[in-house]
Amino acid sequence: MAVKIRLKRMGKIRAPYYRIVVADSRNKRDGRSIEEIGKYHPTEEPSFIEVNSERAQYWLGVGAQPSPQVEAILKLTGDWGIFKGDKNAVSTVKTKEAKEAFQADEKKKPVLKPKAEKPAEKPAEAPVDADASAAVATEAPAAEEAAANADKA
């Protein structure tokens, strides 16, 4: 069986990312693979490359042939040089710099405003006239009776 180390395309249209896989050469590009040994994301800046060096060395040692694209990736990670016998092979993959932790500027005033305190509500004042309170009391039952008659009609 002819074994190849090649890229398996994944992701959406115009947003590809790849897995570096070991597969039978007769299988489809995105078909069944024997083993997954790495990842490659070309759309990130700088490109994300991650290869399991131990497994890559094993598969190269037993005769797996890398595709031209994977060979270029293995040269970047230094795995190709190690396989060819170069003891000084070093990874030249660029990595993304870690984001700097946010530090609030102590000199500036805060942008957020504190919530305004609500003014204390005044208690409802009782009617001064005794006649006005009696009129309010007599109107309420009349309104209820009118609503009940409207429901029956």
UniProtKB/TrEMBL annotation:
Q: Which PROSITE patterns match?
A: RIBOSOMAL_S16
Q: Which cellular component, as a GO term, is one annotated location?
A: cytoplasm
Q: What ranges does the record list as Low complexity composition bias?
A: 125-153
An example GO biological process term is: translation
One example GO MF annotation:
structural constituent of ribosome
Q: Tell whether Ribonucleoprotein is among the UniProt keywords.
A: yes
The region called Disordered is annotated at: 101-153
- Biased composition annotated in UniProt, kind: Basic and acidic residues: 101-124
Entry's family note: Belongs to the bacterial ribosomal protein bS16 family.
| Protein name in UniProt | Small ribosomal subunit protein bS16
Organism whose genome encodes this protein: Salinibacterium xinjiangense
